[in-house]
Design brief:
The complex is a heterodimer of chains A (408) and B (209). Chain A is mainly α. Chain A has 2 domains: 2-43 and 178-388, no CATH class; 49-169, no CATH class. Helices cover 63% and strands 4% of the residues of chain A. Chain A contains 16 helices and 6 strands. A two-stranded antiparallel ribbon of chain A has the order 1-6. In chain A, strands 2-3 form a two-stranded antiparallel ribbon. A two-stranded antiparallel ribbon of chain A has the order 4-5. In chain A, α13 (282-308) crosses α14 (311-325). The mean pLDDT of chain A is 89. With 209 residues, chain B is mainly alpha-helical. Chain B has one domain (2-205). The model of chain B has no long low-confidence stretch (mean pLDDT 89). Classes of the chains: A mainly alpha (408), B mainly alpha (209).
């Protein structure tokens, strides 16, 4: 009964209506438009993890950036030029000498072979190196140690972070045979919808890591806003039952638009791949397992932070989490899923083998965020119960009882 | 006498309701050099921080302008006062826009000092984008009487800009970095229309005088 009432309240709210509109707009402008006309298999690149190729590319890039003392980094997903102090420059020079097998004099000569040019209106030159070679038999493990240390010195997000090395320096164009094999795997192994479901989850996962927090914050703060909280506090129902029922109602209602989007995606796949043997369940099973933890966590964080602090604080916190999970995450948009990734990325309907390679991490991350979500809801129950018993009144900066409120 | 009264209203309103928002917008400004490199950028690279961070300031400054009266207790008190609520809202909008202009000028000045190719026109463009996003939040909040919806619409529009960019055409907030011509006047006009529409809506449907 309470569950139904809460669902009704949510569905009739402006926040939920806007949640539906934005969710549909986001998927229509990304997934549905990308899949219109079927998946294109005319060209593609693949990560080969060729150590020689990676070392060659990274070494030439590092030579150029060292020569200009201007290292391009993306620590928060955005361009940032880092200039190192003399001591750190000396350390990089040492690494470069080690990798090229040169002494100081030879290294200076090598450095002078760089192609010098200017970018934009800057009067400071940048340098290009194209054929500097690693010393014979240089170990890849030692190379990775050097690159990791270099990335640390640059503050992270550089071209030398292990993820970036793979993404930037070991991508090669696929041959016709490889493209045919990709197509075969898409049609026969994934049965079309398996691959499309991964792309669907990639897009929907992004908006499910932020949108639900608004609805959760609205519902959690609604009692106080309407001055109903004291009335609700006096009811017989236990705090655990109330908070969990509201949480379940939030998750249930907010998953309905996602299910409808899955149905539309399946219909689109049936229309585009008429005649192929399609897996009719893949568009429901994989997205549910992939996306539900995103929804569970974002909603739980919204409920807890609103209960303890306020609705704007919950929105702010989730924006930061979302930004960290999407914009500043790995540069590899497919083929790399971490054990603690909230937003799992696989921005491709193909590349099945890369996804399967990360399958254990994927399973772990989904279970991890589900458990974390439940822990957050339990904490929200404690916070709600403490407020109800008058032992806690929320943490606020301003207003009545605020931390920063000036005393008269 | 009247101007003295208005000054007291503004001062009291800022201290009690909006100081934290002004501080949050200033924090966004201070975060900018941490997230972006702000030295020796050419025009297209300089446009990126100028079009990414100011909209967040606009969102923080303009969206919650009606939030104090969304508390029923405060609303009851405000209703009993003689002072026009529309006038108070208008003053809040002006204060927020002034703070926004100061913050964007500070960002542009800092970038110019660090040899970035920044012009006054680019700063004006950044202001138009920031005001448009803030006005969108303000309008949504005014129509739904819910500041959370205001944040929701403006935050999600900002995120859509990060992903869709050119697909948004002249309504793209990052038009300078995406090389879309004629977008900033459209955004400035959209900001004015949204603020006026929000005030008009409150006057007609919420009976605010």
């Amino acid at each position: 009964m309470l569950f139904r009432l809460e669902c009704k309240k949510i569905v009739r709210s402006a926040a939920f209506l806007i949640y539906c509109v934005i969710s549909v707009l986001f998927i229509a402008t990304n997934y549905y438009s990308d899949c219109k006309g079927g998946v294109y298999f005319g060209e593609g690149t693949k990560i080969v993890e060729d150590h020689e190729l990676i070392m060659y590319g990274a070494l030439n890039s590092l030579m150029g950036e060292y020569a200009a003392n201007k290292y391009v980094c993306y620590p928060f997903g955005y361009y940032k030029a880092v200039h190192l102090k003399e001591k750190d420059q000396q350390k990089i020079a040492g690494y470069l000498r080690e990798m090229t097998g040169t002494d100081e004099k030879e290294f200076e000569e090598l450095l002078s072979t760089g192609e010098k040019y200017y970018v934009g209106m800057s009067d400071k030159p940048v340098y290009g190196f194209h054929d500097v070679r690693m010393t014979e038999g240089f170990s890849y493990d030692r190379f990775l140690e050097i690159m990791t240390d270099t990335d640390d010195m640059l503050g992270g997000g550089s071209d030398y972070a292990p993820d970036s090395l793979l993404a930037l320096y070991s991508g090669v164009d696929m041959t016709d045979e490889e493209l045919k094999e990709e197509y075969r795997a898409f049609i026969e192994d994934d049965k079309v919808t398996g691959g499309l479901a991964r792309l669907f989850c990639d897009y929907v996962g992004i908006d499910l890591a932020i949108l639900p927090v608004f609805v959760a914050a609205w519902l959690t703060s609604a009692d106080r806003k309407r001055r109903m909280h004291e009335l609700v506090y006096t009811r017989k129902i236990s705090s655990a039952k109330l908070v969990f029922t509201r949480y379940a109602a939030l998750v249930f209602t907010m998953f309905i638009p996602v299910v409808l989007e899955m149905i539309v995606a399946l219909i689109q796949a049936v229309v585009e791949y008429n005649g192929e043997s399609l897996d009719m369940t893949a568009m429901f099973t994989l997205p549910t397992f992939w996306l539900l933890p995103n929804l569970l966590f974002t909603t739980a964080a919204g409920v807890l932070i609103t209960e303890v602090f306020s609705a704007p604080a919950a929105i702010f916190a989730q924006v930061v989490i979302w930004f960290k999970a999407t914009i500043t995450a790995s540069r590899m948009l497919s083929g790399k899923i971490g054990r603690f990734d909230l937003v799992c990325r696989h921005n491709s309907p193909t590349d099945r083998s890369a996804f399967l390679m990360n399958h254990d991490n994927f399973i772990f991350s989904r279970i991890f965020w589900t458990v974390i979500s439940l822990v957050l809801v339990v904490l929200a129950v404690y916070a709600y119960d403490a407020k109800r018993g008058g032992r806690f009144n929320g943490i606020r900066l301003f207003g009545k009882g605020g931390l920063l409120r000036r005393k008269a | 006498m009247a101007s003295g009264c208005l000054a007291r209203v503004v001062s009291s309103d800022v201290r009690h309701n909006f100081l934290i928002h002004y501080l949050a917008a200033a924090a966004v400004l201070l975060m900018t050099p941490v997230i972006f490199g702000l030295a020796e950028l050419d025009r297209s690279m300089a446009a990126l921080p100028l079009e990414t961070m100011p909209p967040l300031m606009g969102l923080i400054l303009l969206t919650p302008l009606l939030s104090p009266e969304q508390n029923e207790g405060i609303l009851d008190t405000v209703r009993s006062k003689k002072m026009s609520r529309q006038l108070v809202t208008g003053l809040r909008v002006l204060c927020s826009l002034a703070v926004l202009a100061i913050l964007i000028a500070a960002l542009g000045g800092y970038m110019k000092y660090n040899s970035c190719d920044v012009t006054l026109g680019m700063c004006a463009g950044a202001f138009a984008g920031a005001a448009a996003l803030g006005a969108l939040g303000f309008f949504s909040s005014a129509v739904t009487d819910n500041v959370i919806v205001g944040y929701m619409v403006s935050v999600m529009y900002f995120f859509m800009n990060l992903f869709l960019k050119n697909k948004l055409g002249r309504f793209c907030l990052m038009s300078m970095s995406c090389n879309i011509k004629g977008s900033k006047p459209v955004l400035a006009a959209a900001a004015l229309v949204l603020i006026a529409a929000a005030m008009l809506f409150r006057r007609i449907f919420r009976n605010e005088q």
